Amino acid sequence: MSQQELIAAIVREVLAEMSGEKRPFTPSAPSLNGKLHYQRDYPLAKKHPELVKTSTGKSLDKITLDAVLAERVKAEEIRITPQTLEYQAQIAESINRPQLARNMRRAAELTRLSDERMLQIYNALRPNRSTKEELLAIADELERQYDAKICAEFVREAARVYEARGVLRKE
Mind listing the pLDDT tens digit for each residue in 99-132? Predict the structure, then answer.
């Protein structure tokens, strides 16, 4: 597969995901009269493309293969934004999927972390890799440095569960 074919395939996959074919951080747009709802608003890219934007504010119609090849669209702009994840959380809540909504909001918080830091935390959360104190320090970091309260609580819960199950690293 050539580089151009690979890029085209990646762009198609991302656009398909964003339009809901494959598979938010501030309140929904005022014109929608409150929160988004599955029946009315999903998939976002088809029913409300004006709501789905890149991290730099580009609209979906600006994400094209030509734009990627001409470097008018950067890789980081194709990543999902906290706002879009919040919209997806609202849609999940509208069909009584609170766990999915919480996961979307946790993912929105994680967009604030570098890939490197996220992988470090992921590795620290593996059984027998961290002490309870180390996990609690990560939770404090998530809350204070990244305002990631949902993620911080998740790590604190992991520390409690790991302690109960005896899978914390011995000091």
Answer: 999 999 999 999 999 999 999 999 999 999 999 9
Query: Is the dihedral angle over the CA atoms 92, 18, 110, 55 positive or is it negative?
Result: negative
- Mapped onto helix, strand or coil, the DSSP state of residue 25 is coil
Q: Take residue 98 and report the two structure tokens written for it.
A: 């609170």
**pTM of the predicted model, to two decimals?**
0.71
Structure tokens of 123?
């590795």
Which sign does the torsion angle of CA 35, 52, 149, 102 carry? positive
The one-character DSSP state at 111 is T
Radius of gyration in angstroms for the set of CA atoms belonging to the chain, rounded to a whole number = 19
Query: Quick one: tokens of 80?
Result: 């999902």
Residue 96 CB neighbours (<10 A) = 9
Contact 84, 14 (CB under 8 A): no
**Which domains does the chain carry?**
1-111 (no CATH), 112-171 (1.10.1510.20)
